[in-house]
Records
---
Amino acid sequence: MESRFDLDTRVERRGPGRWSAQLDPGWWIVRGPNGGYLAAVLVNALRGEVADPARTLRSLTVHYLRPPAPGPAHIETRTERVGGSLTSVTARLLQGDQTQALATAAFSKPRRGSPLHHARMPEVDPPERATPPRRPGSPQIAIHQRYEQRFAVGAPPFSGERGSEALSGGWIRLAEAPRAPDPALLVAYADAWPPAVFSCSEL
């Protein structure tokens, strides 16, 4: 069965470069939908535009122009260039005649050889021992029900334990039955985590 995340980020093809989506208020923050949720919807349309499973999402930039309303939206996608290994695509999320968000993405085939990075996972408590979120007095936000989070790096946001630097990290997964991450879920995770500045006392 499809997860709620899959259902709420699903797009349907309506023609060449045209897609429909249904924006669900269960992913809302204070003024509108969480940016990661909108990015996931756009990524699903962009993947449909590329239509090549050998090329996966490598880069994504989204400009959020205004907060969309819950309900129907449509997406216009365009392939800007197809190269030997890289495809560049764009997408616009619209309601009525207004563009709500604009995305630019790159999809590519895997490159041979070792990746050029030296990132290492920090030594942190496992999820079952990490700190769950505490939000005393914070507004009830719909998206808080969509994810399970555990804080392991920096002072937990909303806890009153403000740190001296903007540093935050930990564990996150869907609150429903977990599933393997794909590009849409990964971009949703990236923006669902509270901004690091929320952990800093020097505001």
Note: Residues 35-50 form the longest helix (16 residues).
---
Amino acid sequence: MLKLSPAADDRFIWDLLSKVPTPEKGAKISRARLQTILSTHRISKFTGEEVLIILKETPLVLAEGAAEAATEHVLLLLPQVILLDQQLREVGSRIKQVLKGITGGEGAPPCDAGLILSIPGIGPAIAATLLTEASRPIRDRDYQSLRCYAGTAPVTKQSAKRKAVTMRQACNPRLRQALYYWASTSINCDQRSRRQYDKSRACGQQHARALRGLGDRLLRLLIAILKKGEKYDSNRRDGDQEFTTPAINDKSLVASLN
């Protein structure tokens, strides 16, 4: 099963597990039935024949009764997982409807929600998190407060002649997570963000540190768009000067004062 879905988080895997919970049953399922499951969930990366070959592979050797116990556990968990997935999809759909009502659709005057959604990498879930968890900084167009809320503003600790810059721990965890996903998505859909991320990595920063730095710059972009009152324009942004990112290790000393 893990060859078909490494995280076992695909809906067709759940359907398949409910019908063939053991290797013995999986080896006996027909090709036509497998193809029906794949077609129902619109899976095109596998054919019924390929899935059948995987299911017929020699299973792991387990102690007597272990397979039956694992099967019972899986069958008990599946309804809960399916229900949770359904609820998450319903909540996502409701968030989209609320944002659509706020933005007013095509031709409507620009509002904060519409301006935020115009930025690459921001989807309904991230936009909703920004609007609810950071409503005051967004309303006040306060970049410094927003970066503190999101945890991208570093903390400087100084004692005598030594100074250290560390990651901010006191922040809004939901906003920090949303910003992390925003930065992760932006490097795949925005060339400017990708260049900034690659530059940070070349300076020796770890993946999380590079994303945090990119997220801080995206927050600056967000506030600039809100202040201007105009939607994101990649052509105008590409003409701006590149940000430079120094190599900083969050857990080490970054400067010494003489």
Note: The longest helix spans residues 66-103.
---
Amino acid sequence: MQVNNKTALVTGASSGIGKAIFDELIKNGWTVYGTSRRIEKGSVENVDGGKMIHLDITDLQSIDNAISIINKNEGKLDALINNAGNGIAGAVEDTSYIEMLSQFQTNFFGTMQISNSSLDMLRKTRGIIVNISSVAGVLSIPFQGMYSASKSAMESASEALRMELKEDGIRVCIIEPGDTKTEFTANRLMVEKARTSRYAKKMNASIKKMEKDEQNGTSPKVAAKLVYRMINRKNPPVRCAVGFSYRVLVFLKRLLPDKLVLWLLGKMYA
């Protein structure tokens, strides 16, 4: 294992893409703090060569506590990788206000808040923020509308953040995984009205197709290696999809008429 003096914080690091990023950075000699809601509050646990701390991304006090631990122990931060997130499936019509708010609290508001809270440490190192989005943040998917919306909002704010932080030397990069074989599939939430929805038949078929694609998808290690390449670049791209096929899809989205893109996605998932 290599050794260097760089420090990273990876949110949602207990499984999936977050754990793969956690492991990849440790392998390359970084001091890595991962977060999980299952860790005891205030403690620092040694896990697989890295450190795990408690974080509930929807709790402002929890965010402050996590940042305080790293600031006290390290005094700086070279990379923040915002990976924590979840997915709520269901028709937009069936999604309650509370369910919409919950999706945005995790995938958008929490990500933006921990980014803001990390800036003083990142300024010391002219570090980088990597926000893990999704191809679904670029290509809206039926029955995943709130998930797509939350990732799209995060991407838009990330672009603004990149411009605002340029003079501080802080880089901001968006990573867009496609179908990836992780626990995300099993942990996907359903809206409360799913069982009685007028869309139930189409929705269930669509989600079944998504789940099959995800479980036959790429390894989270592919995303982790891409993240590692981006944090070492002096001027990383604004966004980068994970895998050649997904980069092609995102590129075609820019070229093809919107009606055609929606028709194709409808054929795939609706």
Note: DSSP finds nine helices and ten strands in the chain.
---
Amino acid sequence: MTVISRLLIDHPALNTAGGAGLHSSIETIYTRLGDAVDSRFFTQNALANAASVDFEHNFKTALSTLRYDLYLRDTGTGELTLVTDASTPALSGFTISAMPSFTTTKIRVLNSSGAARDIALVVRHVDLTLPKVENVTLSINSNVTLKFGRVHLVDTSAARSLALPDPALSKSLIVVKDSTGSAGTNAITITRFASENIEGAAASYLLDYDRGSLALVSDGTNWHII
């Protein structure tokens, strides 16, 4: 167990295979997320049309390495509604950029949506520059090598054998999901790249229950299931 800010993280013991590396990675990630939560959740009431507001975050990293979501905020209930390309107003009605001269610590939100808006901005930091989930979903209907940073929706109308990539290449997440609900009959076999372990075992991993899913992360040497 590791206590970081307000978070209690349960992870493999330090003396287990891959435990030390995973411990270090988790501590780094969640220290950034957990410390000073108010430096990643921001609100602004009645942001006028053609006006901007600057928010100061504590990640000290370029805007290109941050992930963030913009919401409309109900000031009465506090309820948040995600602003998307298809929402009203659309995301295109706002410009989110790094504030000039503060490119690693301040974000500027410009409202060009045509009316004053109550907004909230939530900043989610990731160590790796990955696209959002809606842009990383893959539909799988054959035996392939899994890709880092992707959600793999697997057609289990037949059994599938999916190979893990070299764990040394990245530490980003890989997600596998039985999207057709037949893994109990046609199992998904997750095979190793070489001799690395999957969840502490030197063997393939079987996903064999309907609608099952799993997420795997590399510590650079071995794979861990989250």
Note: Confidence is low (pLDDT under 50) at residues 1-7, 127-134.
